């Protein structure tokens, strides 16, 4: 059974249906291979105008660029203002809710869980096939946030991703564990054993003050659906964190992402506590020093830009940091991606 808000049903003919975001947003279920927990789907979200089945529109898309947004941990796509920014710069916007997340979470599934980040390759390939082959877009950029940034880099390194992706824009990608050296090294070795044998052991749980601070009910700017992103947070399980650490190790060893890459993050990190006076102007989830240090391992063509007063999700930062982030992204798109397309 599909979770609330998931359009269609697994196994049904592929179609776009109205999405919970309203207006002209539509969504499409992407059936995937079953895993150990059973049935699996992902969900592709888009503007209705970007998926219109019209021969003349499809022909025109060959000269256009699309962007695919990948969310972070315990998250889903709701940032319609982010979509408008891309659209205002002539790039059509798509987003994916990964399996086990948001619109794609089925009743029998453990939320946000996987045992190997390579599992997500199937749905990223399916989503990009829809965008590039079915809809006919000539170029594709992936915009990944946090865990989604790590996934984007790893998939762009894969054979399928390398042939598909023309650029990466990574918003505070999760490239290392924000913990002391002992936890990152010794703790990871212990986790490798525990996560293999006891996948569902909870290693962390509890509300994130950062996540709470974003919400309108806590004085933040953003309306967030409790079904898809619970106010009290989501458990971090040993098997999932083991998969994250394995993916981060592959990246640290060096990837060969051939397309241009933009990595953005805040200029400062801080503690994820309610009494932190800088909660709304620093990254309290990741250590930005790790991001800057590891970004060059993604590939030979990586640019790093740090945003003053940016929070973990730079696209949700209070102004003026949010506009500074978007300005950096689209200046890079114009100078790097557009230049590469005309070279």
From TrEMBL:
Q: Record's InterPro entries?
A: AB_hydrolase_fold, Hydrolase_4
Keywords on this record? Hydrolase
Q: Where does the Serine aminopeptidase S33 domain start and stop, copy by copy?
A: 64-266
MF (Gene Ontology):
hydrolase activity
Q: What PANTHER family does this protein's entry cite?
A: PUMMELIG, ISOFORM A, RE40534P-RELATED
Protein name as catalogued: Alpha-beta hydrolase superfamily lysophospholipase
In its UniProt entry, the species of origin is given as: Sanguibacter antarcticus
